[in-house]
Design goal:
With 305 residues, the protein is mostly helical. The chain is 71% helix and 1% strand. It is globular, with a radius of gyration of 20 Å.
């Protein structure tokens, strides 16, 4: 159930994922971007820009353009989510035992950070390939990879194995997002659960209020965490971009951050955020709902998935 949910979410939200990556990229900035954000304000401008790019992709690249990078995404979504939930669930159990059986906020923090680091390290090459494929067709100078295997072989040939780990530093910075999300989720889930004396109809051992609370907690925690940590997404995409004329403009986390702010302003660190939130918030609600359903069915200790 969890795998099916992840695959369905990846397919349905692929157009928004492509749009998000392009709005974060330097190549889109150079070729297509218009000052929609400055004319209409940050939030409304983002909606306009997202809509324009969705239409442009259809006009120039056809319907298939919405699904560039979907292959690596489908390959990566199951192991990435599984590793994250597996590490978090077992990490929480391990750290709770170390903490004399007390499941505290500190336990949630450490478990979430550990899960984020392990997941980022294990799956980074998949996301590098996905980013390269999604940036195909942005301008005439962009390299055409054809498919995932061709992209992989070209990266290894031209950049070596290190090329598959571009953006790793930004991914580690993004661990903050996952940590914030898990901590908020655990706290909201407890706050919004039904009381022990609640006699509402039970579904799978939980009340309707419990399941609604899980969905609300998942969506809220993802929204808050994504908004706080979003700039790392832009930095990560810039670091994963292919070289332009043989030169990598962005070479490191802090160098990229300084250069983006200097050349484009702080607002550039939030490029594509609307498309990102439209994609990840519903996905998070589905994923965490599936997680709780599996935990409820197979045990209350939240073990490996």
């Amino acid at each position: 159930m969890y795998s099916v949910g992840g695959l369905a979410g990846a397919v349905c939200t692929s157009p928004l994922d492509v749009v998000k990556t392009r709005l974060q990229s330097t190549f889109y900035q150079q070729t297509f971007r218009q000052p929609s954000i400055h004319r209409h304000g940050l939030i409304f401008g983002h909606f306009i820009e997202t809509g324009k790019l969705l239409m442009r992709i259809k006009q120039i690249e056809g319907f298939r353009g919405y699904f560039k990078g979907l292959g690596p995404n489908l390959i990566g979504v199951i192991p990435a989510r599984s590793i994250n939930f597996f590490t978090y669930g077992n990490g929480k159990k391990f750290f709770t035992e170390l903490n004399q059986g007390k499941e505290t906020t500190a336990v949630h923090l450490i478990s979430a950070a550990t899960a984020g680091i392990v997941t980022s390290t294990a799956t980074n090459p998949i996301w590098v390939i996905k980013t390269r494929l999604q940036l195909e067709g942005v301008n005439n100078r962009m390299r055409k990879y054809g498919n995932s295997l061709e992209c992989l072989s070209q990266i290894l040939r031209e950049e070596g194995a290190r090329g598959l780990y571009k953006g790793m530093s930004a991914s580690y910075l993004g661990v903050i997002e996952g940590t914030i999300q898990w901590v908020i989720y655990e706290n909201l889930k407890r706050k919004w659960c039904s009381s022990k004396n609640d006699h509402q109809k039970l579904i799978g051992g939980k009340t309707i209020q419990d399941w609604a609370g899980h969905l609300g907690a998942a969506a809220t925690s993802k929204f808050v965490a994504a908004c706080i940590a979003y700039p790392h997404e832009v930095i990560r995409t810039r670091l994963r971009q292919p070289a332009e004329n043989g030169i990598h403009k962005y070479t490191g986390l802090f160098q990229c951050l300084r250069l983006v702010v200097k050349e484009e302003g702080i607002v550039a660190l939030y490029g594509g955020m609307t498309a990102h939130l439209m994609r990840v918030v519903p996905n998070a609600a589905i994923m965490f709902f599936c997680y709780e359903a599996i935990v409820q069915k197979y045990g209350h200790q939240k073990p490996s998935l």
